[in-house]
């Protein structure tokens, strides 16, 4: 089980590594830093609000102590020492509250200063990270583009590999079809396959056509010889005159007659 778990984690890590885009990771980290900076700023604002509230309470208590002091003085001037003592007692109680609030105010003011300084430092770090992030993203994008261009030129990229495979398959299919067409033509010419259109001929039909063609040539040659022979006889008759022509005709009619004479 441990081995299976290790194999599963290794494969999952490899799959995540392939799916991870450093630019997206940097953007996500930057977003998280901005959220943290926003929380710090919100804390500074909350502390400042609490400090302001204490300042209002201090102002109010200090006004009350001043008023009680005036009332004690007036009561003492009127001979009401008891009222003057009561006013001073109340003033003393308020003064203790003022002291406590002043202590809290000092503490809050110190916390506000610390948070403000932390926010400023965090803001500087976020700004530096943003500059570095953009630099890394630009470098990564340029390297990725250069790699893709190199793969395209070398033909080892996935897209170019798919194109090369498609071209190879098309060439293979073309050669296969050409070979099949040539084989069919040879089979039709040899008579191994019947041509349903009647264009193909077997060996006997081809031999008969050849003999018929030769006979036609011989007949045409004999006809031309006869025409030439007839033309020569007519020419001789014209040159010898009518008598020679008549004798030639008589000879052609009865050749034995001239032999006896």
UniProtKB/TrEMBL annotation:
This is PspA/IM30 family protein. Residues 250-261 have a biased composition (Basic and acidic residues). The keyword Protein biosynthesis does not apply. Belongs to the PspA/Vipp/IM30 family. Keywords: Coiled coil. Residues 44-139 form a coiled coil. Residues 224-261 are annotated as: Disordered. It comes from the Bacteria. It comes from Streptomyces poriferorum. InterPro entries: PspA_VIPP1. The keyword Coiled coil applies. It holds the Pfam family PspA_IM30.
């Amino acid at each position: 089980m441990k081995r299976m778990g290790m194999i599963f984690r290794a494969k999952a890590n490899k799959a995540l590594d392939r799916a991870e885009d450093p630019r997206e990771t940097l953007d996500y980290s930057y977003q998280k830093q901005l959220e943290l900076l926003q929380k710090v700023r919100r804390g500074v604002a909350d502390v400042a609000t609490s400090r302001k509230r204490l300042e209002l309470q201090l102002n109010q208590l200090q006004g009350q102590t001043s008023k009680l002091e005036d009332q004690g003085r007036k009561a003492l001037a009127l001979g009401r020492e008891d009222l003057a003592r009561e006013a001073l007692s109340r003033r003393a109680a308020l003064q203790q509250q003022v002291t406590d609030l002043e202590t809290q105010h000092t503490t809050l003011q110190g916390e506000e200063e610390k948070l403000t300084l932390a926010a400023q430092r965090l803001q500087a770090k976020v700004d530096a990270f943003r500059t570095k992030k953009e630099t890394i993203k630009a470098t990564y994008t340029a390297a990725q583009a250069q790699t893709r261009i190199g793969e395209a030129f070398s033909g080892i990229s996935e897209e170019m590999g798919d194109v090369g495979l498609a071209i190879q398959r098309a060439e293979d299919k073309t050669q296969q079809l050409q070979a099949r067409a040539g084989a069919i033509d040879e089979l039709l010419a040899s008579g191994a396959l019947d041509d349903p259109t009647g264009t193909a001929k077997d060996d006997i039909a081809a031999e008969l056509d050849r003999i018929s063609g030769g006979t036609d040539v011989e007949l045409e040659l004999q006809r031309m010889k006869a025409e030439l022979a007839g033309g020569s006889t007519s020419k001789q008759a014209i040159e010898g005159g009518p008598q020679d022509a008549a004798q030639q005709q008589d000879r052609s009619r009865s050749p034995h007659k001239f032999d006896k004479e």
